[in-house]
Amino acid sequence: MANTSTSSANLAAHVAGAGHHKGALVLFSGGQDSTTCLAQALAMFERVETLGFDYGQRHSVEMQVRAGVREQLAERFPQWAPRLGEDHVLSLDVLKQIGGSSLTEDVAFAMQADGLPNTFVPGRNLLFLTLAGALAYRRGLTVIVTGVCETDYSGYPDCRDDTMKAQQLALNLGLERRLRIDTPLMWLDKAQTWQLAHDLGGSELVELIRTETHTCYQGTRDVLHEWGYGCGSCPACELRASGWRNWRASQSAT
Protein backbone atom coordinates (compact mmCIF):
# COMPACT_ATOMS: atom_id res chain seq x y z
CA MET A 1 0.00 0.00 0.00
CA ALA A 2 1.09 3.57 -0.60
CA ASN A 3 2.46 5.35 2.43
CA THR A 4 1.08 8.89 2.18
CA SER A 5 3.25 10.27 4.96
CA THR A 6 6.38 8.85 3.33
CA SER A 7 5.55 10.47 -0.02
CA SER A 8 4.83 13.81 1.63
CA ALA A 9 8.05 13.65 3.63
CA ASN A 10 10.05 12.81 0.49
CA LEU A 11 8.49 15.76 -1.32
CA ALA A 12 9.30 18.14 1.53
CA ALA A 13 12.87 16.86 1.67
CA HIS A 14 13.39 17.39 -2.05
CA VAL A 15 11.97 20.91 -1.96
CA ALA A 16 14.19 21.76 0.99
CA GLY A 17 17.15 20.19 -0.80
CA ALA A 18 16.87 22.48 -3.81
CA GLY A 19 19.11 24.91 -1.92
CA HIS A 20 21.04 27.29 -4.15
CA HIS A 21 20.14 25.41 -7.32
CA LYS A 22 17.90 27.52 -9.57
CA GLY A 23 17.70 25.57 -12.82
CA ALA A 24 17.05 21.93 -13.69
CA LEU A 25 17.08 19.71 -16.76
CA VAL A 26 14.49 16.91 -16.59
CA LEU A 27 14.93 13.73 -18.62
CA PHE A 28 11.40 13.65 -19.98
CA SER A 29 10.05 10.70 -21.94
CA GLY A 30 6.34 11.48 -21.71
CA GLY A 31 5.68 8.60 -19.32
CA GLN A 32 4.24 8.50 -15.80
CA ASP A 33 7.53 8.67 -13.94
CA SER A 34 9.19 11.45 -15.92
CA THR A 35 6.01 13.53 -15.87
CA THR A 36 5.86 13.23 -12.08
CA CYS A 37 9.51 14.27 -11.92
CA LEU A 38 8.83 17.22 -14.21
CA ALA A 39 5.95 18.39 -12.02
CA GLN A 40 8.14 18.21 -8.94
CA ALA A 41 10.94 20.12 -10.67
CA LEU A 42 8.48 22.83 -11.68
CA ALA A 43 7.44 23.14 -8.05
CA MET A 44 11.06 23.41 -6.91
CA PHE A 45 13.13 25.34 -9.45
CA GLU A 46 12.89 28.74 -11.11
CA ARG A 47 13.76 27.41 -14.58
CA VAL A 48 13.10 23.91 -15.87
CA GLU A 49 14.02 22.56 -19.30
CA THR A 50 13.25 19.09 -20.63
CA LEU A 51 15.23 16.57 -22.63
CA GLY A 52 13.99 13.61 -24.64
CA PHE A 53 15.87 10.99 -26.62
CA ASP A 54 15.01 9.39 -29.93
CA TYR A 55 17.02 6.20 -29.65
CA GLY A 56 15.28 4.04 -32.23
CA GLN A 57 12.49 2.83 -30.00
CA ARG A 58 10.28 0.24 -31.66
CA HIS A 59 7.36 2.64 -31.18
CA SER A 60 7.32 6.42 -30.94
CA VAL A 61 4.18 6.96 -28.86
CA GLU A 62 6.02 8.41 -25.86
CA MET A 63 7.84 10.84 -28.11
CA GLN A 64 4.54 11.83 -29.70
CA VAL A 65 2.77 12.60 -26.40
CA ARG A 66 5.64 14.63 -24.86
CA ALA A 67 4.61 17.97 -26.32
CA GLY A 68 0.99 17.50 -25.28
CA VAL A 69 1.93 16.64 -21.72
CA ARG A 70 4.11 19.75 -21.47
CA GLU A 71 1.30 21.89 -22.84
CA GLN A 72 -1.23 20.42 -20.43
CA LEU A 73 1.07 21.01 -17.46
CA ALA A 74 1.44 24.67 -18.40
CA GLU A 75 -2.28 25.08 -19.09
CA ARG A 76 -3.65 23.31 -16.04
CA PHE A 77 -1.03 24.65 -13.63
CA PRO A 78 -0.49 28.30 -14.57
CA GLN A 79 1.77 28.82 -11.55
CA TRP A 80 4.28 26.48 -13.24
CA ALA A 81 3.97 27.83 -16.79
CA PRO A 82 6.55 30.66 -16.42
CA ARG A 83 9.10 28.15 -15.14
CA LEU A 84 8.75 25.69 -18.01
CA GLY A 85 11.54 26.41 -20.45
CA GLU A 86 12.84 24.93 -23.67
CA ASP A 87 12.39 21.33 -24.74
CA HIS A 88 15.29 19.46 -26.34
CA VAL A 89 15.30 16.20 -28.30
CA LEU A 90 18.56 14.42 -29.10
CA SER A 91 19.04 11.53 -31.51
CA LEU A 92 20.71 8.47 -30.07
CA ASP A 93 19.89 5.78 -32.61
CA VAL A 94 23.26 4.14 -32.04
CA LEU A 95 21.41 2.14 -29.38
CA LYS A 96 19.21 0.64 -32.09
CA GLN A 97 22.32 -0.16 -34.13
CA ILE A 98 23.73 -2.10 -31.18
CA GLY A 99 20.43 -3.96 -30.95
CA GLY A 100 19.54 -6.92 -28.79
CA SER A 101 16.69 -5.29 -26.84
CA SER A 102 12.95 -5.78 -27.18
CA LEU A 103 12.58 -2.00 -26.82
CA THR A 104 14.48 -1.43 -30.07
CA GLU A 105 13.60 -4.62 -31.97
CA ASP A 106 10.32 -6.37 -32.71
CA VAL A 107 10.92 -9.40 -30.48
CA ALA A 108 8.88 -10.86 -27.63
CA PHE A 109 9.58 -9.80 -24.07
CA ALA A 110 11.63 -12.46 -22.29
CA MET A 111 14.22 -13.04 -19.60
CA GLN A 112 17.86 -13.33 -20.67
CA ALA A 113 20.43 -15.83 -19.49
CA ASP A 114 22.00 -13.15 -17.26
CA GLY A 115 18.75 -12.76 -15.31
CA LEU A 116 17.80 -9.41 -16.83
CA PRO A 117 14.74 -8.88 -19.05
CA ASN A 118 15.46 -8.26 -22.71
CA THR A 119 13.85 -4.82 -22.27
CA PHE A 120 17.23 -3.78 -20.83
CA VAL A 121 19.07 -1.49 -23.25
CA PRO A 122 22.74 -1.70 -22.18
CA GLY A 123 24.26 1.69 -21.41
CA ARG A 124 21.08 3.63 -22.17
CA ASN A 125 20.84 5.61 -18.93
CA LEU A 126 24.60 6.15 -18.83
CA LEU A 127 24.48 7.70 -22.30
CA PHE A 128 21.36 9.69 -21.44
CA LEU A 129 23.00 11.20 -18.39
CA THR A 130 26.27 11.91 -20.16
CA LEU A 131 24.46 13.86 -22.87
CA ALA A 132 22.22 15.50 -20.27
CA GLY A 133 25.35 16.64 -18.43
CA ALA A 134 26.76 18.17 -21.60
CA LEU A 135 23.49 19.94 -22.35
CA ALA A 136 23.13 21.17 -18.77
CA TYR A 137 26.66 22.54 -19.00
CA ARG A 138 25.76 24.54 -22.12
CA ARG A 139 22.42 25.70 -20.74
CA GLY A 140 23.72 26.79 -17.35
CA LEU A 141 21.60 24.24 -15.45
CA THR A 142 23.00 22.56 -12.35
CA VAL A 143 20.49 19.79 -11.59
CA ILE A 144 19.69 16.79 -13.80
CA VAL A 145 16.43 15.07 -12.86
CA THR A 146 15.74 11.48 -13.87
CA GLY A 147 12.92 9.12 -12.90
CA VAL A 148 15.01 6.01 -12.33
CA CYS A 149 13.88 3.81 -9.46
CA GLU A 150 15.32 0.91 -7.49
CA THR A 151 12.04 -0.10 -5.82
CA ASP A 152 9.50 -1.01 -8.52
CA TYR A 153 11.74 -1.78 -11.48
CA SER A 154 12.99 -4.61 -13.69
CA GLY A 155 16.44 -4.94 -12.17
CA TYR A 156 18.21 -2.68 -14.65
CA PRO A 157 21.72 -2.01 -13.28
CA ASP A 158 21.78 1.50 -14.75
CA CYS A 159 18.78 2.48 -12.59
CA ARG A 160 20.50 1.76 -9.28
CA ASP A 161 21.32 4.45 -6.73
CA ASP A 162 25.01 3.45 -6.78
CA THR A 163 25.07 3.93 -10.56
CA MET A 164 23.56 7.41 -10.23
CA LYS A 165 26.09 8.44 -7.58
CA ALA A 166 28.99 7.16 -9.67
CA GLN A 167 27.64 8.94 -12.77
CA GLN A 168 27.28 12.20 -10.86
CA LEU A 169 30.89 11.96 -9.72
CA ALA A 170 32.06 11.23 -13.26
CA LEU A 171 30.15 14.22 -14.66
CA ASN A 172 31.47 16.56 -11.99
CA LEU A 173 35.03 15.46 -12.65
CA GLY A 174 34.75 15.38 -16.43
CA LEU A 175 32.93 18.68 -16.80
CA GLU A 176 34.56 20.51 -13.90
CA ARG A 177 31.11 21.61 -12.75
CA ARG A 178 29.10 20.95 -9.60
CA LEU A 179 26.15 19.10 -11.12
CA ARG A 180 23.62 17.14 -9.13
CA ILE A 181 21.71 14.11 -10.38
CA ASP A 182 18.33 14.15 -8.66
CA THR A 183 16.36 10.87 -8.47
CA PRO A 184 13.10 11.71 -6.67
CA LEU A 185 11.53 8.30 -7.35
CA MET A 186 14.52 6.16 -6.37
CA TRP A 187 12.99 4.71 -3.20
CA LEU A 188 9.29 4.99 -4.11
CA ASP A 189 7.10 2.18 -5.38
CA LYS A 190 4.54 2.91 -8.08
CA ALA A 191 1.75 3.51 -5.58
CA GLN A 192 3.89 6.11 -3.86
CA THR A 193 4.65 7.67 -7.24
CA TRP A 194 0.91 8.15 -7.81
CA GLN A 195 0.72 9.64 -4.30
CA LEU A 196 3.57 12.02 -5.06
CA ALA A 197 1.68 13.27 -8.11
CA HIS A 198 -1.35 13.85 -5.91
CA ASP A 199 0.77 15.69 -3.34
CA LEU A 200 2.12 17.94 -6.08
CA GLY A 201 -1.01 18.73 -8.04
CA GLY A 202 -4.01 16.96 -6.53
CA SER A 203 -6.52 15.04 -8.61
CA GLU A 204 -5.89 17.38 -11.57
CA LEU A 205 -2.29 16.19 -11.94
CA VAL A 206 -3.22 12.56 -11.32
CA GLU A 207 -5.81 12.74 -14.09
CA LEU A 208 -3.36 14.43 -16.46
CA ILE A 209 -0.83 11.64 -15.86
CA ARG A 210 -3.50 8.96 -16.16
CA THR A 211 -4.91 10.15 -19.48
CA GLU A 212 -2.07 12.01 -21.23
CA THR A 213 1.14 10.10 -20.46
CA HIS A 214 2.30 6.81 -21.96
CA THR A 215 4.37 4.00 -20.46
CA CYS A 216 3.38 0.85 -22.38
CA TYR A 217 6.28 -1.04 -24.02
CA GLN A 218 3.96 -2.16 -26.84
CA GLY A 219 2.93 1.37 -27.74
CA THR A 220 -0.77 0.57 -27.36
CA ARG A 221 -2.75 3.80 -27.29
CA ASP A 222 -6.30 2.71 -28.17
CA VAL A 223 -7.48 1.41 -24.79
CA LEU A 224 -7.87 3.69 -21.76
CA HIS A 225 -7.81 1.63 -18.57
CA GLU A 226 -8.51 3.00 -15.09
CA TRP A 227 -4.73 3.56 -14.74
CA GLY A 228 -4.10 4.94 -18.24
CA TYR A 229 -3.42 3.81 -21.80
CA GLY A 230 -1.59 0.59 -22.60
CA CYS A 231 -1.74 -3.06 -23.59
CA GLY A 232 -2.25 -4.09 -19.97
CA SER A 233 0.11 -7.07 -20.14
CA CYS A 234 3.68 -5.81 -20.68
CA PRO A 235 5.92 -5.28 -17.62
CA ALA A 236 5.51 -1.49 -17.75
CA CYS A 237 1.70 -1.72 -17.82
CA GLU A 238 1.64 -4.29 -15.03
CA LEU A 239 3.74 -2.05 -12.77
CA ARG A 240 1.67 1.03 -13.53
CA ALA A 241 -1.64 -0.83 -13.05
CA SER A 242 -0.65 -2.51 -9.78
CA GLY A 243 0.64 0.81 -8.44
CA TRP A 244 -2.64 2.48 -9.34
CA ARG A 245 -4.71 -0.23 -7.64
CA ASN A 246 -2.59 -0.11 -4.49
CA TRP A 247 -2.75 3.67 -4.37
CA ARG A 248 -6.52 3.73 -4.86
CA ALA A 249 -6.92 1.11 -2.15
CA SER A 250 -4.88 3.25 0.24
CA GLN A 251 -7.07 6.25 -0.62
CA SER A 252 -10.20 4.27 0.17
CA ALA A 253 -8.75 3.14 3.50
CA THR A 254 -8.13 6.69 4.75
UniProtKB/TrEMBL annotation:
Cofactor: Zn(2+)
Note accompanying the cofactor annotation: Binds 1 zinc ion per subunit.
Ligand binding (Zn(2+)): C216, C231, C234, C237
Main EC class the enzyme belongs to: ligase
InterPro entries per the UniProt record, alphabetical: QueC, Rossmann-like_a/b/a_fold
Binding-site residues, ATP: F28, S29, G30, G31, Q32, D33, S34, T35, T36, C37, L38
EC number of the protein: 6.3.4.20
Gene3D superfamilies: HUPs
GO terms, biological process: tRNA queuosine(34) biosynthetic process
UniProt entry keywords in alphabetical sequence: ATP-binding, Ligase, Metal-binding, Nucleotide-binding, Queuosine biosynthesis, Zinc
Entries under SUPFAM superfamilies matching the protein: Adenine nucleotide alpha hydrolases-like
Keyword Ligase tagged: yes
Span of the signal peptide: none
Catalyses which reaction(s): 7-carboxy-7-carbaguanine + NH4(+) + 2 ATP = 7-cyano-7-carbaguanine + 2 AMP + 2 diphosphate + 2 H(+)
MF terms (GO), sorted A to Z: ATP binding; ligase activity, forming carbon-nitrogen bonds; zinc ion binding
Pathway this chain belongs to: Purine metabolism; 7-cyano-7-deazaguanine biosynthesis
Highest taxon of the lineage: Bacteria
Family note: Belongs to the QueC family.
PANTHER family: 7-CYANO-7-DEAZAGUANINE SYNTHASE
Role according to the record: Catalyzes the ATP-dependent conversion of 7-carboxy-7-deazaguanine (CDG) to 7-cyano-7-deazaguanine (preQ(0)).
Name of the protein in its database record: 7-cyano-7-deazaguanine synthase
Organism per entry: Comamonas testosteroni (Pseudomonas testosteroni)
